[in-house]
Amino acid sequence: MKRQIPLVIVFVFGTLMVIQYFVPHENSEIVKGFLLDWIVIIGIFALALGLWSLVQVSIDKINSRKENWEYPLVTLISLTVMIFFGFTSHAEDASWWGYFLAIAVLLAALWMLAQGLMGNAANRNVKSLSALGLVIVFSLLAIFDGSWEFKFYTAEGLTNQMFVHFFDYIMIPLQATMFALLAFFITSASYRAFRARNLLATLLLISALIVMLRFTPGPWGEYLAKTSSWVMNVPNLAAQRAIVIGIGLGIVATALKVILGIERGYMGKG
Amino acid sequence: MEMISIWIAAILTLGIFSFLYKDNPLYKACEALFVGVSAAYWAIVFYFDNIYKKFYEGAVTAEEPDYFLWIGAILGLLFLTRLVPKIGWVSRWPMALIVGATAGLWMVGYFVSNAMNQIGNTISNIIARDELTGAIAWGETFGTMVILVGVVSGLVYFFFSKEHKGVFGATAKVGTWFLMVTFGASFGYTVMSRMSLLIGRVDFLLGDWLGILR
Questions:
Q1: Which residues span the domain enclosing A172?
Q2: Is the dihedral of CA B149, B151, B153, B156 positive or negative?
Q3: B interface test, pick of A100, A171, A187 with most B CB neighbours within 10 Å
Q4: CA distances from B206 to B10, B16, B114, B201, B214 (A)
Q5: Of the residues A153, A188, A223, which one is the last residue of a structural domain?
Q6: pLDDT value, residue A268
Q7: What's the pTM?
Q8: N or C, fewer C-beta in 10 Å, chain B?
C-alpha cells in the first residue's frame, strides 16, 4: 500500500504525459497545462520543506554549541529578516524605527521559541512564555504602527526598499564575488592542466588558448576571433552533439525505468 | 542610505575574497549570510510567482476560478506530511506525481530535442550551397563534414559495449580528439566568464566604493 500506490501514480501520469505528446488536440494541451501547474504548486511546498530543514539543522547546531555554531545563527537571522522584508511594505517618508524594532522583537521571539522548544526541560516554560510575550508585543506593533504593514496577498514586498537593497547590495555582491573567486582557482588549475604532455593534452591546451585569446586586440585579434568562432561552431559543436545525443538516450532509458517501476529511488526507504 | 549599502557590499566582497588568504571567520559569516538571504529571496519570489499569482489569483480571486488548481494545492499539503513520521509515506504521492509526469514529459521531449533533432541536423544538408548562386560552398561543406565525423566518432567513443579495437578503436580515438577540443573550449570559456565577473567586482571596489575609477 505504502509503496504500491506511488508506483501506480508514476505509471499513470508518466504514460499520460507520453500519450499526450502524440495527441494534437486542445484538451490534450489543457491536461498537460494542469499537470505542469500542479507540479509548480507542489514544488513550492517542497521548497517550504527545504526551508524547514535548513531551520531545523541550524537550530540543532546552535543548541548543541558545536564548533562554528555562530554561523547558523547568521543564516537564521538573515533568513528571517529577508522573509520579513518580502512580506511587508513600508510607507514612504515614514520613520524606520518602528520597522526595525518590530524585526528585533520578531527575532527575539523566534529565538525564545526555539530555545523553549529545543532547550533544557527546566527553562522550557519560562522561555516559551517569554516567546509568547514577545509575539504579543510584535502583534501590537504590527497593528498600531502605521509606518509598515504585512502584504501576503499582494506582491508589494518584492518592491520593499529594504528587500531590494538586500538583493542589490548583499545577495548580488556575495553571489558575484563567490563566482569571481573561482577565477583564481581556475587559473591555478589551468597551470596544472595546460601542459602539452601528449596529443590530447596539446589539443586541450590549443583550443582553450584560442577561446581565451579571442578578444585580444591588435593584428592577431581578428584572426583569433575567426579561429575561435570556427572551433566553437565546428569541432566543439560536433563533440557537444555526441554528448547531447548520449544524454538524450540516457534520459529516455532512465524515464522508462522510472515509469515502469524499475527505478524506485525517489521513494526513499521505509 | 545608498552610501551605507555600498560600504556593506564592499565589506562583503572583501570578506569573500579573504578566502584567498585562508578560511576565516569573516568568510564563513559572509557564506552563512548568503545562504540565509538567497534561501529567503527565492522562497519569497517562488511564493509570489506560484502560490500567489498562479494559485491564489487563478483559483481564489479569479472571476471564473480554476478549481483544478486546488488539487495541486492539496497534493502540495500532502507533501508536508513528511514532517509527521507516522504518516510521512503519504508524501510519496505528490512526489510520485512529479516524478511520473516529469519522466513522461522528458522521455519524449528529450528524445526529440536531444536525439532526433541533433541527428537530423548532423546528417541533413551535408553539402552546403550558396543561397544566391546555388553553387557548392566548400568552406561550409568542410565544416559539416567535420561535424559529421566528430559526432559519429564521439558516439563511438561513448559506446562501451564493444571493445575499442581495430577500426572501432581508431574511430573512438578520433572521438577523443574532438572531445578534448570541446573540453578545452569549455574550460577557456569558463575561465573568461569568471575573469569577467572578477573584473566586475574589482570595478565595483575601485569605482563605486573607492571612486578611483570613473
A1: 84-188
A2: negative
A3: A171
A4: 10, 16, 45, 9, 9
A5: A188
A6: 80
A7: 0.87
A8: C
| Size of the A and B interface in Cβ pairs below 8 Å | 395
Same domain, A213 and A139: no
Q: Is residue A232 part of a domain?
A: yes
Judged by CB atoms closer than 8 Å, whether chains meet at B5 and A158 is answered as no
Give A-chain residues touching B153 at CB under 8 angstroms. Answer: 242
By Cβ distance, the residue of A199, A242, A246 closest to B150 is A242
What are all long-range contacts of A250-257, with beta carbons under 8 Å and residues at least 24 apart?
Answer: A251/B106, A251/B107, A251/B110, A251/B111, A251/B114, A252/B107, A252/B110, A252/B111, A252/B115, A254/B103, A255/A14, A255/B103, A255/B104, A255/B106, A255/B107, A255/B110, A256/B107
The ipTM (two decimal places) reads 0.88
Do A141 and A121 sit in the same domain of this protein?
A: yes
Tens place of pLDDT for every residue, chain A, 270 residues? 788 999 999 999 999 999 999 998 999 999 999 999 999 999 999 999 999 999 999 988 888 888 888 999 999 999 999 999 999 999 888 888 999 999 999 999 988 887 777 666 667 788 888 889 999 999 998 899 888 999 988 888 899 999 999 999 999 999 999 999 998 998 888 888 778 889 999 999 999 999 999 988 888 888 999 999 999 999 999 999 999 999 999 999 999 999 999 999 888 876
With an 8 Å Cβ cutoff, are B40 and A79 in contact?
A: yes
- Residues A196, A178, single domain; the answer is no
Q: Model confidence over B118-177: pLDDT tens digits?
A: 999 999 888 988 888 889 999 999 999 999 999 999 999 999 999 999 999 999 999 999
Smallest Cβ–Cβ distance between A10 and the set B82, B96, B179 belongs to B96
* Inter-residue contact A86 to A107 (CB < 8 Å): no
Chain A contacts of B172, Cβ < 8 Å? Answer: none
Q: Pick B41's closest partner by Cβ from A171, A252, A267.
A: A171
Furthest-apart CA atoms within chain B: distance in Å: 74
Same domain? For A180 and A219 the reply is: no
Q: Do A242 and B12 touch (CB under 8 A)?
A: no
Q: Mutate which of A22, A36, A44 to test chain B, going by most B C-beta atoms within 10 A?
A: A44
Asked if B44 and A232 come within 8 Å (Cβ–Cβ), the reply is no
pLDDT at A119: 63
Do residue A197 and residue A174 come from a single domain?
no
Domain boundary among A188, A217, A251: A188
Cell numbers 565546428: residue: A234
- Into how many domains does chain A fold? 3
State whether B41 and A254 contact (CB < 8 Å).
no
pLDDT of residue A126: 83
Dist. CA A143–CA A246, nearest whole Å: 59
pLDDT digits (tens, 9 = 90+) for B30-50: 999 999 999 999 999 999 988
Residue A180 placed within a domain: yes
Shortest distance, CA A189 to any CA of chain B (angstroms): 10
